[in-house]
Write a structure and sequence with these properties.
This protein is mainly α and about 100 residues long. About 30% of the residues lie in helices and about 0% in strands.
């Protein structure tokens, strides 16, 4: 849950690219369309631990609907549980990704 925060060590340095399309969605609308059965079963602390241990080394090649397999070709697994409802509401976002 997002309201529980804890301090963690600094993350390894890496390049991240953010693309902001001219279209967007309201956060409440995306959450309203969130299907809780689609939430990733991954434990965030385990993902973070693997990231610290492996840096940008591939950490998963599973295939499922919750982005367990890297979709960007880098081999790094990032999970965004809000992508599925956002992509359903505005399919062009998936095309952009």
């Amino acid at each position: 849950r997002g309201e529980i925060l804890e301090k963690v060590p600094q993350l390894p340095v890496q390049n991240v690219y953010i693309i902001k399309p001219d279209v967007g969605l309201s956060t409440p609308l995306v959450f309203k369309n969130l299907n809780y059965s689609e939430l990733s079963p991954e434990e965030p602390r385990e993902i973070l631990g693997r990231f610290y241990a492996n840096g940008d080394t591939p950490i998963s090649d599973e295939d499922d609907d919750n982005q367990a397999k890297p979709q960007d070709g880098t081999g790094i697994k990032y999970i965004n549980d809000l992508e599925p409802p956002a992509f359903r509401l505005l399919p062009v976002l998936k095309e952009i990704k």
